[in-house]
Amino acid sequence: MKTLEGVRVYPLGREKEATAMTYPDASGVPANLLPRKDASTFEQLKQLVDTEPASLADPDWIGLLAAIGIEKGKPFKPDEKTRRILDAAAASAYQMSRVLGTKSEINGVDFKVYPDRQWINPMASGSPYDMAWHRPIDDSLALDARVNFFTNYYSWSPGMVSQIPGKGANYMVANFDAEGVPLSGSKNYELHLPPNIPAANFWSVTLYEAENSSGLENGQPFPSLGSRDKPEANADGSIDLYFGAKAPTGKEKNWLATVPGRGFFAIIRLYSPAEASFDGSWKPSDFEEVK
After folding, report:
1. Which of 88-97, 162-171, 212-221 has the lowest mean pLDDT?
2. Whole-angstrom distance, CA of residue 14 vs CA of residue 27
3. Which sign, positive or negative, has the C-alpha torsion 229, 232, 233, 239?
């Protein structure tokens, strides 16, 4: 592993107590960052409880963990029977989260970006919740909506819910094709992006594994295509993108590979979005199957 060594940090007023720091180069180094879906989930929770302050969660959540033996500073050693139960619980919870992650409406909140398209966004018209996922009507926890979000995203920020043109980013997610069928790596699709894509900074379309929300391992350097890749535009400035196991002849520059037998979903990202990305006047097509 390559390292950058000898970098010295001088805290204010303590210049003589220099500390050497090492920065590892993680580029190209395999790392499993996928969510746990077995009893090791609870071992990870135990580690969090042991290493984080009491503010990690409110008393109710801490109490739920204590009920199954996860307490700060105490050993967590479930017996064989309990471990089997925890394995099954984690697997079921993971599968439930994957289902919730594709929903276009939860608890009466519609996530659709356009009424006649499959694109969804939990912040499509600004989040109805605060940053702690409390419902404004009674301050209760919007649990299913929170699960829906964190199934596909690892964090969120004010920039993701901004409805101010030119600020933050605007996302839209496609789990299904124009007919409402889950996207499949065994099929071929076309996506039409109208001219004047409303992103002052840049835009991209990125593919993810339907099973776990990781970047789709499709054999290309990155499972993403966008303005910085300079795809070929049509005469009117619109752009057609293609998805499938093989690139259509002559369309290689506008193609992202998919993997037969594996489901995927796609996210359009618009950075420094323009007004047209909020008012619906710019509208991409759905994923249209090409037979």
Report:
1. 162-171
2. 33
3. negative
Alpha helices (H) along the chain: 40-51, 59-67, 80-100, 143-152, 158-161
Query: What are the pLDDT digits (tens) for 97-110?
Result: 999 999 998 888 88
pTM of the predicted model as reported, rounded to 2 decimal places:
0.84
Which has more pLDDT, 227 or 13?
A: 227
Q: What is the model's pLDDT at position 130?
A: 80
Place of tokens 């064989």: 80
Instruction: Please spell the DSSP secondary structure of 91-156, one letter per residue.
Output: HHHHHHHHHHTT-SEETTEE-BSSTTS--B-TTTT--SS-TT-B-TTT--B-HHHHHHHHHH-S--
Residue with tokens 């929170």: 146
Report how far apart, in Å, the C-alpha atoms of 243 and of each of 184, 186, 264, 270 are: 10, 10, 11, 20
* Distance from C-alpha of 234 to C-alpha of 239, rounded to nearest angstrom: 6
CA angle in degrees (0–180, nearest 5) for 216-217-220 = 105
Give me the residue label for tokens 């995927």. Answer: 264
Phi, psi at 192, each rounded to 5°: -100, 125
The reported pLDDT for the residue numbered 137 is 86
DSSP code for 30? -
